Automatic annotation (TrEMBL):
Its cofactor is Zn(2+). It comes from the Eukaryota. Belongs to the zinc-containing alcohol dehydrogenase family. InterPro entries: ADH-like_C (IPR013149), ADH-like_N (IPR013154), ADH_Zn_CS (IPR002328), ER (IPR020843), GroES-like_sf (IPR011032), NAD(P)-bd_dom_sf (IPR036291), SDH-like (IPR045306). Keywords: Metal-binding, Oxidoreductase, Zinc. This is Enoyl reductase (ER) domain-containing protein. It comes from Xanthoceras sorbifolium.
Length: 325
């Protein structure tokens, strides 16, 4: 464990209860031979962080004891373990937040993001990375290209990724007109304002399909409510795919039979798998520009932490709320 002096230096944002965050000391584990100690310099608030903040849970992951929050982060190497050869003190790195066991069938088959023993920053019961310093395996720390900032290293966006991978036409649906305006500025071909009333799904599906002008091959539900999933299932063409990303609800009541009759596949996606090198390359080459996604920036005082999470939880113009430590 870290000594008392280290504890005094290392402060983290602890989630203590619903909408209750407090800056408190955080003991770091001992530095293993294949670990590095990282000074966290940039951290973005994710939707899952907001769920934990507002409800003390995200899907079936329930916060049962005080937990350091946060996982989308980048920083500077402060110390390296005795066996680390790939990184050195002073390197700027992006941190992949999940530590898998490496032994189970999922890990051995390459689907390590599904590891049942996964220790993931800021997902209970594992402490997160909104702290001055963290200790992390070196093989999960990826050196940033010289032209990629620490803020960029801490984030990516779905719309931009879809465009980078060649999607010819992209439509974004949201309840907030300000968010739609930002999506349009980021390159969305079409934007559709929708309601929160599930009775409006049928009419909104027609509107979405008309604005796309052709069959929708793939839909991404980035929220995870009954209405958003129903909209995605009905809007997607026969033989298309719906990818459920958002985990707002652990249970949903939706009509699957019509989608099944049209052979619409429902795909789950959970956390990350082998994405960091590719994402960093997209940033390095300029194929993706995530800078416009950062709408709010905060420091790392008690007030900053409280204000940042309230800002992100409120939504509105807040897309990506970023801490600069």
């Amino acid at each position: 464990m870290a000594d008392d002096g280290e504890e005094e230096k290392n402060i983290a944002a602890w989630l203590l209860g619903i909408k209750t965050l407090k800056l408190q000391p955080y003991h770091l584990p001992s530095l293993g031979p294949q670990d590095v100690k990282v000074q966290i310099k940039a951290l973005g608030i994710c939707g899952s962080d907001v769920h934990h903040f507002k409800t003390m849970r995200c899907a079936n992951f329930i916060v049962k004891k005080p937990m350091v929050i946060g996982h989308e982060c980048a920083g500077i190497i402060e110390e390296v373990g005795s066996e680390v050869k790939s990184l050195q003190v002073g390197d700027r790195v992006a941190l992949e937040p999940g530590i898998s066991c490496g032994r189970c069938s999922h890990c051995k088959n390459g689907s390590y993001n599904l590891c049942p023993e996964m220790k993931f920053f800021g997902s209970p019961p594992t402490n997160g990375s909104l702290a001055h310093k963290v200790v992390h395996p070196a093989n999960l720390c990826f050196k940033l290209p010289d032209n990629v900032s620490l803020e960029e290293g801490a984030m990516l966006g779905y719309l931009l990724a879809a465009r980078a991978f060649g999607a010819p036409k992209i439509a974004i649906a949201d309840v907030d007109v300000q968010r739609l305006s930002i999506a349009k500025n980021l390159g969305a071909d079409e934007t559709i304002q929708v309601s929160t009333d599930i009775k409006d799904v049928a009419a909104e599906v027609i509107k979405i399909q008309n604005q796309m002008g052709s069959g929708i091959d793939v839909s991404f539900d980035c929220v995870g409510f009954e209405k958003t999933m129903s909209t995605a299932l009905n809007a997607t063409r026969s033989g298309g795919k719906v990818c459920l990303i958002g985990l707002a609800k652990s249970e949903m009541t939706i009509s699957l039979t019509p989608a099944a009759a049209r052979e619409v596949d429902v795909i789950g996606i959970f956390r990350y798998r082998n994405t960091w090198p590719l994402c960093l390359d997209l940033l390095r080459t300029g194929k993706i520009n995530v800078k416009p996604l950062i709408t709010h920036r905060f420091g790392f005082s008690q007030k900053d932490v409280e204000d940042a999470f309230e800002t992100s939880a409120h939504g509105g113009t807040a897309i990506k709320v970023m801490f600069n430590l």
